[in-house]
Amino acid sequence: MVRIVAALMLREIATRYGRSPGGYLWVLAEPMAGIALLSFIFSITLAAPAIGTNFPLFYASGFLPFAMYMELSGTVARSIAFSRPFLQYPPVTYTDALIARVLLNFVTQIVVCGMIFTGIDLFYGLHTVWNIPALLEGAVLTALLAVGVGVMNCYLFLEFPIWERIWSILMRPLFLISGVFYLYSSMPMAAQNVLWFNPLVHCVALVRRGIYGTYDASYASPAYVLIVSGVLIFFGMLLLNRHHLRLLER
């Protein structure tokens, strides 16, 4: 199993990053461009970010967990479709394809986040006191949520192809309702009561708590994120286990 997963990871590195100009540079450049754009737009209209004094660090604390969720959930959702030719061989299972994509993309996103946070801190001379356990907690919960959504969509995309388009439409407002460029506590109570049920809001809050020592993220519930992620992973894997052979024959 280890050799199969490693081979699938190497294949994805070669096909996804090795054949495109820039390769892994784009993985780093895309979030940097998003953070720079947010910082530029809001620095024109605001005297200071919602917390702290540095615009890039504040928007990185929201954009990077959001980008990790989107990237990881999307790649996991297409794991079986991406590795379909190899799944015809008996030793290769759909779980191998899922594990390979989860490991590769999670490690990639962690490295990207670490490089960008460190780069911002050094460039602006912020001397940030990082709360590493809180950052890791936020990153792991974000990854678990992404895996849960990705595994469920892995089945739904194959069973109902139209769902992939519907899902992409449903996800468009997610950037606006996940606390990426604002603080949950700054929203009206009516909005907070609705936004709380978005598990990504909790993930972003936990990451911000790891960066800003004075940030009150008491509303964030790791247990809620774990429950949502666990339910999605359980039912997603159950559906894949029962139907993956039929879906591969399509």
From TrEMBL:
Compartment(s): Cell inner membrane; Cell membrane
A cellular component term, taken from the record's GO annotations: ATP-binding cassette (ABC) transporter complex
Keyword Calcium (UniProt): no
Chain ranges passing through the membrane: 24-51, 57-81, 102-126, 138-158, 170-191, 223-240
Keyword annotations: Capsule biogenesis/degradation, Cell membrane, Membrane, Polysaccharide transport, Sugar transport, Transmembrane, Transmembrane helix, Transport
Gene Ontology biological-process entries: lipopolysaccharide transport; polysaccharide transport
ABC transmembrane type-2 domain span: 22-243
Stretches of the chain forming a coiled coil according to its record: none
Cross-referenced InterPro entries: ABC2_TM, ABC2_TM_bact-type, ABC_2_transport
Membrane-topology annotation of the record: Multi-pass membrane protein
Main location: membrane
One Pfam family from the record: ABC2_membrane
GO molecular function: ABC-type transporter activity
PANTHER family noted in UniProt: CAPSULE POLYSACCHARIDE EXPORT INNER-MEMBRANE PROTEIN CTRC, INNER MEMBRANE TRANSPORT PERMEASE
Family as reported in the entry's similarity comment: Belongs to the ABC-2 integral membrane protein family.
Identification of the protein by name: Transport permease protein
Organism: Paracoccus suum
